[in-house]
Amino acid sequence: MRAMQYIAAYGTLSCAFLGADASAIETRFTYTSDEIEWESSKLYGDDFVIGDDVSPIFTVSFLLQGDWLNLATPATFTIPNQPDIALSNYALPYTFAPNAINSVTVGQNGNVTNWNFSFAFDPVFVPTGDPLDDAVQKLVNSRAKIFSKYGPALCDCDVVQMRFNTATILSGGHPFLIGPVEENYRDANQPRNWSLALVSAVPEPSTYLMLLSGLALLGACAQRQRRRLH
Fold this sequence. Notes:
By secondary structure, this protein is of the alpha+beta class. It is built from three helices and 13 strands; from the N terminus they run H-E-E-E-E-E-E-E-E-E-H-E-E-E-E-H. Helix 1 (about 1-25) runs antiparallel to helix 3.
């Protein structure tokens, strides 16, 4: 009888650990662009050299459940709605909203073979406490977009577009809008810009419950055994 109790206890623990192993694998996808070269810029729609001394870099990172490094067949997925995104040389706080495409294809060997994604950034107004600075910040209205495409019929390129207004302060302390500026950056990309890594996910609450149940059963068996010995 005692043996059966211990077997049941160990069985409970084994199920818990097996359940944790089965659901605890996630894959971290990270895309890091190269330094993207300046292509063109405009002021009021006319060619105007600005931003040519900047080479922005962006990263996009997100988690997907499962082992994507050892697929039986190639698979395509949509990037989750809340990836981690960083864009250098873009210091203003921002929000972003994904477009409808954002697809990525992974081959059997864990290599990303095709992708097409874009994200738009909108500024977040942060009051400075200075009415004049706040007014200029609203006039500048800095925005950005990033594009990355690779695959058949695509450009195999990374693109960054920045748009903002130039503004100045007139005598008397009045902010004045000079004009809209657009900066365009473009460079080639390759599958090597992707990195994939397996990570351990946080166990579900049900996993902890199974572990606690198994430990409680083992404790009960041990307590009963001590009573019999005495």
